[in-house]
Amino acid sequence: MNGDPSAPTVAAPLPPARAAGPRPAPAEAPAPPSGPAGPPDRRGFLVKAFGVTALLSAAGSALGLLRDLLLARFFGANQGTDAFLVAWTVPETAAPLLIEDAMAFLMVPAFSLALVLREENPESPDPVRQLVRATLPWLLAALCALSLGAALGAPQLVQLLAPGLPDPGLAVTCTRITALTILPFGLAGYLGSALRAHHNFTAPAGIYVAYNLGILAVLLTCNAIWGVRSAAIGVAVGSLLMAALLVGPFVRRLRGPAAGRAAGPPPGARRGRGPQAGGLVLIPLAILPVAVFTLTRQAQVFVERYLGSGLPPGTISHLNYAAKVSQLAMTAAILICTVTFPLVARALAAGDLVTARDRVEKDLGQATAVVLAGTAFLMACAPSVVALLFQRGAFGPQDTAATAAVIRVYSFGLPAQALIGVMVRPYFSVRPVVRRAGDRRPDDGGRRLLDWYPAAAMLLGLGVTVVVGLLATPGYGALGLAAGNAAGITATAALLLRGLLLRGIAVRTGRVLAGQARLLAAAVGAAAAGALVAGLPGDPLLSTLLGGATVALVFAALGTGFGAAEVRGPVLAAVRALCPPSIADEGKLPHGR
């Protein structure tokens, strides 16, 4: 289901009879009593869904931060934590591949198309159940094989990732433990994608709360007994809790809307080419470009661990703590497109590329506003934030200075990371892992080749990361690695913006870039003002609070003054809420766009 890259205008990815019809996208249509369509008040739905997702994600992030604080307190930054963090590469790789990125890119569009077919043909066998029957058994078998392979190949994996480790045996033990996470991670990603496609965001948003609670429980009770191995065992326990949280809601969704419908395929449904699922034909090869893109993106971490293993002990730990703090801002931005992704996928499944384009442009602006505000805060307050969070126990002032410096360099790449998260979702949704059984359009080689564009863009960005890292690491150490990461991810974001146009989603580039420039100017001014204020008091807590407040106020003022809609609208709405009604009624306040 591709857009035509040669078309001068937006090309619908569905057969002309579907795309040209007057029927609105399902995300806009009122939901029947038992159906999965979007709610009638889309704005209210988005606000509620974002609120629930943000609250639970913030709780998960807070618990994750507490987890990192305990790691720093109990074990500091030394050879032991370096060994554990090398082992943590397994869940760090499995999480984006099997939970948030690749699995979501594949299964949210697939379930969205199945839901569209369910609405169109309420009397036919349920496409959602058929999709589950056709995909879940194969997925579980593949996950078991991957988990076993990672455990058996742990020595070779550690040697490949960090050949300079002085104690590889500890890393091998931890890697064998963390390899157990692959199966529950994959199951959680599959179930979470299905629930999000059904507009159920509560349980998927709570998985990291369960995950980090499992880690914390084991870490707090067993750190003195098992040492850093307790962290690895906690990761395995947390992954099991993550998957268990989603099983109940998934089963209820699968049973409820399809009550009374035929569960099996109609006579002759499996005849012909390829496995079919309730009007859907699976396209297994569509998995490959998505998986390669995600693995190539995660390879940024591999490069850092590989080059960092040859630097002084503790370098990998400094990079890890800096990444965890830096990504809090990026994670908040990604929440926006996590909530809106099912709407974009449903619009694309229904052939409404205009709605999809408008939603993507809004996501790009809103995600950039959030991540640039966070970036300005980190630029201004990184030393006080690290001292406040980590400087206790085995984590000393030198660790604080090294980690804060890395955070500031990392921050240059945060906007690009958020933009990639927004852009790649609709890109892969245009050609999901399933298609309509009656869609007989030719699938030319050019369209198949275009599927690999994000992976190629990420590979080029990875090349930039490697080159910059190799050139800068001898002189600048961890800062050189962080600079390579920021440069590579920024190059990839620029290429992916072009890729959206090639895919047929005609994002208005000039309009998007102009909005980004306004937000960037506001962030630069806010970071400069925040740095001046944060440097005045000596107490880390006071510095963080004063610097953060200054960044927020200056960013809001400059963003409003520069006309950035993503800042101006919320600021004016807040002003109206604080002012007496008579003032707003008299028209003395301007209305935001």
Automatic annotation (TrEMBL):
Residues 1-40 are annotated as: Disordered. It comes from the Bacteria. Pfam families: MurJ. GO terms for cellular component: plasma membrane. Keywords: Cell membrane, Cell shape, Membrane, Peptidoglycan synthesis, Transmembrane, Transmembrane helix. The chain crosses the membrane at residues 45-66, 138-158, 170-193, 205-226, 232-251, 277-296, 328-349, 369-390, 410-428, 449-472, 478-497, 517-536, 542-565. InterPro entries: Lipid_II_flippase_MurJ/MviN, MurJ. One of its GO terms (biological process) is lipid translocation. It is a multi-pass membrane protein. This is Membrane protein. GO terms for molecular function: lipid-linked peptidoglycan transporter activity. It is found in: Cell membrane. The keyword Glycoprotein does not apply. Residues 1-22 have a biased composition (Low complexity). Residues 23-39 have a biased composition (Pro residues). Its main location: membrane.
